[in-house]
Amino acid sequence: MFSLLASMLLASVSLNSYGSDSMSGAGNETVQEQEDFKKFLDKFTSSAAFQYTRIKFPLKTPITLLADDGETEKTFPFTKEKWPLLDSETMKEERISQEEGGIYVSKFTVNEPKHKVFEAGYEESEIDLRVEFELSSDGKWYVVDCYTGWYGYDLPVGELKQTIEHVKEENATFKEIHP
To answer: What is the mean pLDDT of residues 7-35?
Structure first.
């Protein structure tokens, strides 16, 4: 009788621990590990292939240009073909005093756990670059929006195709160095 009771107790403990192990195992599968932003940014700025996989095209804000009549706005989706690849120098946080007297500032203006915004440009002037990053539900960082001086409001619509071609040439150089 004693051995039967001991066997039942052991079986009960064994089943209980099996159940809790499988429950904790199931719980771990649904928890996503959060990607470290600095490691992500290092890889993002050093690999064209990786960079393209971490941008959600088309971006939230379209490219808006002034039409040839000088009054009408035209918008274009910010798609992969228009994306200027970003290197580590472009995304570096710094403050540079220019000889002409201007101060160029590049920094993260929003640095939250799941949302980051990088901006660059001359102080007391419009920004040249604004890149918005978000941590997705899959635990990975993505670019979700961008403004770049390449497609500034003052770019004539008629020069858009030429500008896209120039961006593609710059991207080809980037890809040679950072495939």
So the answer is: 49
